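Page 47, continued from p. 46.
Same chain as before, 233 aa.
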Amino acid sequence: MPLCFLLKAQQKDYDTVALMILDRMSDVIGDLSSCSYVLNTATDRLDNGSLTTAYSRDEVYMMGPDKMLVNAYGEKGHRSFFYNGTTMNYYSFKENNYATVDAPPTIIEAIDSLSATYGIDFPAADFFYPTFTDDLLGYCDKIDYLGLAEVDGKECFHILAKGKNINIQVWVTNDATTLPQKLLINYTGSKTTQRYEAGFSAWQLNPVLPAAMFDFLPPPNANAVYLMPKTSK
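Result:
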């Protein structure tokens, strides 16, 4: 039994070329002082045996370690998230209401906190974690470089990562920037979410972004509401 366990524990296969590309991508993102991009996503879910697809479009702006603005368009209508290093403000254009919560001092900490406390997810945020490659190694037993492929007119490095009940494909541009172009996740063991696809476009590197755009000013007649923690009944 101990020998069998040891053999299973060692059955991991990581392509060094794939890891080098992912590390290069993370280094480029980590060196940015600001950026903006558009993210289009599609999520397949099973609901009472029926497969449905939800689409969304996010316009994302980031500056430094502590400023972020997300304009989200999807099932819940047009929503915006303003983060300025101390607070996160949520505004629903459809409902004309807003909520303000205290937030940690960096973008990554704020994303983690809002996800854990309120169940708010920021699509494809994983790419902005400095530990992205290590995180992928943590829950995938096999990572392969599959060669070059064209995605939306761009030549990309194609990487496949496999873990228990999950297959992850990443396309990274084969150019000087080495940025993520597309992400595809298949949840082979899930009874709800089956597939998640995200495509990046309109990347702007180190744009000049005014700090005031990350501060929220409630529109006239907007109603203040409370965000309910996801553990609340």
